[in-house]
Amino acid sequence: MRAIDAGLLICHECHQLNPSGQPACSRCGGRLHSRRPNSLARTWALLLTSMILYIPANLLPIMTVNSLGRGAPATIMGGVLELIHLGMLPIAAVVFIASILVPSFKLVGLALLLYSVQRHQPMSAQQRILMYRFIEWIGRWSMLDIFVIAILVALVNFGSLASIEAGAGAAAFASVVILTMLAALTFDPRLIWDNTEIHHD
């Protein structure tokens, strides 16, 4: 049974349970809502913005790998191929997973989750909650690629022998990561269990 069916509302500020008849939380005084106001709209806005930014994140150079005085700006896939060429296979695998697989899964997964909830598609609540928890779980690894690039820029600096510089694509990619993390936070998972209508009060 859901808390709302038992006549209870949870405060979004302090998580105190309150009777559904009162407008404010008895503990902190925060305004009570059965669901986060405009949760779907806010999540869609953040998700669509991150999808738009994901294009320049892949097209713009994310880093420049200089070896023996030569080098050219590389996109994410170009950087992966360059790292493979330099024999840095583990780092290339980390960059590929963190930059391509994880963001793509988060974008597609969130879009499918939002669509299934909003359009009441025939996906069970258990499937939706598993997808949401997995998206939350991989979210903690979203900044791994940015950390890898930052470490490479700091460590691989041997003058004309070898050096790595961050590119404009790294900023766009970091924006995508932050926006997808915010999208996961603004989504109200309780909407997964609502089978009839979305509450907006």
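[next item in queue]
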Amino acid sequence: MTTQAPERPPADDDAPPTNPPDRLRRGLSVAVVVGAALVLVTGILWIVAATSGTTRLSEDRDAALVAARQAATTVTSVDKNDPNGTLARWEAVATDAQLDEFRTSHDQYAQMIGQFPASAHGTVTDAAVAELDDRAGTARVIVGMDVALDDGGRTPPTRQRLQMQMTRTDDGWKVVKIAPVGGATG
């Protein structure tokens, strides 16, 4: 009778040799490839975000707001002693229908400014872009103003709100139409 020896598990000496530096090199290689892929993806996402329409929309909104604030200050500031200079400043911030109105009514406005009891200056208290159409290059901005007469404080400032239709021109954002919102309060 023949007896067979039971099968024995392989001893550690029988296992294929594994070189720890080879494993480490493979792990580092995988980590480098994964890291490079992450850097590439992050870079592409950053470029897409930086050149996206959202950035341009934000820049247009900010530019329209700045221009409307400046225009509101300009058109609510009157130098009683320089009606033509006042009107020239008004015309500089306007375009299209608003510019036409300033030009066609120039003489009437100049006469009215000369009859003011004192010069006036407007100060923006708040402003917000209510609508923006980036493709059409138009915006509607609501501006809150305090307008004070230069009369030594005898007349309290009036508060008013203006709605300004703005359009993007080659010279920046300009006013197309100005309309009061509600009534002025003192």
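[queue empty]
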